[in-house]
Amino acid sequence: MEQNKKWWKESVVYQIYPRSFMDSDGDGIGDLRGITQKLDYLKELGINVIWLSPVYQSPNDDNGYDISDYQAVMKEFGTMEDFDVMLASAHERGIRIMMDLVVNHTSDEHRWFVESRKSKDNPYRDYYIWQEAKDGREPNNWGSCFGGSAWKYDETTDMYYLHLFSKKQPDLNWENEKVREEVFSMMRWWLDKGVDGFRMDVISMISKVPGLPDGPKAEGALYGDFGPYVINGPHVHDYLKEMRDKALAPYDTITVGETSGVTVQEAVKYAADDESELNMVFQFEQNDLDGGEHSKWNLDKIRLPELKAVLNRWQTYLEGRAWNSLYWSNHDQPRIVSRLGNDSGEYRELSAKMLALCLHMMKGTPYIYQGEELGMTNVPFEGLEDFRDIESINAYHEYTENNLIDKDNMLEYLRYKSRDNARTPMHWDESPNAGFTEGTPWIKVNPNYTEINAKEQLGRDSSVFRFYQRLIRLRKENPVIVYGRFELLLPEDEDLFMYTRSYEGEKLLVICNFSGKERSVTVPEEFAAGDVWISNYERQSVRGELSLGAYEALAIHI
Ligand code: TEU
Question: Which residue among 146, 167, 201 is best mutated to probe the pocket of ligand 1, counting the most ligand atoms within 8 A of its Cβ?
Fold first, then answer.
């Protein structure tokens, strides 16, 4: 089939979490000048788009995902001038900047909310979702993503406001046309400044089912689930089409929706190839595979056949209809080498490269989260005092104080799954604090920076960094990697992830051993004379029966 070719399909995106990327002024917090200093590093890696986690003014209840002014820069990160310099410097290097757009909610310190809570007839009242008490308590049984009820009582007007996240993140009322106009005009302001697109935070949740009914409550759960009345709500596609018309259409942008709860059937609406809404979405099905009774808090391992089933469904259902995003990690997920690979000793680099190859040879736009290109690992946090993330801290209290999980187990779960695993400072070199800051970092540095750091990896051909660089280069040079049709082989195999890509007479075979065991596999006849494009074992050729090493991965081209 003739493919709709687009630059954003051919791109590789790198996510920066500015707070932890590079600190230029010694206050222990990363900043915009720090990012500008490191643009050459990103150019060397070969990425061509940066997704910048929020840099807007914020009281930092949720590290910038609680915005108090959409048109100002967070003071810890620098000034608007620093932003402009960063943007121009990125553009000079052929790197585009995708902003994080957090518009399901604002901070409670945003001017709109400060006004809204003042009185029932304030012009900003309907910018947010206010409800009367029901039977003397919260308007419904919804729990917030960060613990507790999703409603907060506000004395001034004796009503409750909705917050799906922290109580300092009140939800905007998207049914109000004025809210939508404000958001679209703010987006145009950034686009006119020259930014190249948006990653849209929890955009699948902006339209709530009228009446806000109680959600289903699992046995033993403290609150009801808002999901059925919030996720992929009744008007979400109307709002996004309106956003396309009123904000995005005149500009050449890249857009990705963060869409928890999205199915492939919904994704082909959000990310339809006609670009009527967004370019692509982040699906959550792959991360939800190790969730359980207590949401994500456990030590469970994802089983490979289930992971393959999810990714196969996304690769095949979207074919010719919509575009995929490809990611293992972001600022909300633990480090992938600790989750799906092996983060100890001899297998860390091999498994980090295997995971990279597996993802980057699939169909879609790949996203790399800072430090992933070095094979950075989860962090040996000691006690609760080492954590900074509101989700982790609130979850600890909620689960332990209600005797749902005991304290030692909960700490183990945090060490394995906490978002803070991804948020410790980037490892630049072996100097104190990994070269991230000359001050005291806002969160502890992972002690393994002396071994895992960018400086060391830039100086070594066999490093994880150099492997990512080769994967990115291969994608740039070969349309089969961007546009080829995906086909999964051996779906039930517990150890091997094997698939092909086909495009205009070319074919690629990808073989990844997700286990620490040696495995043998038969290479399909047609690939016997193929070229090995990339291998984490420096394998040069393949024929017939292949004996794979632990975490071995390779791609063969014919
Ligand atoms: O995340 C939304 C979201 O679904 C998360 O709550 C996710 O389920 C959780 O972090 C996984 O443990 C977005 C942002 O990416 C996140 O950083 C913000 O905290 C959140 O929205 C609120 O803005």
Answer: 201
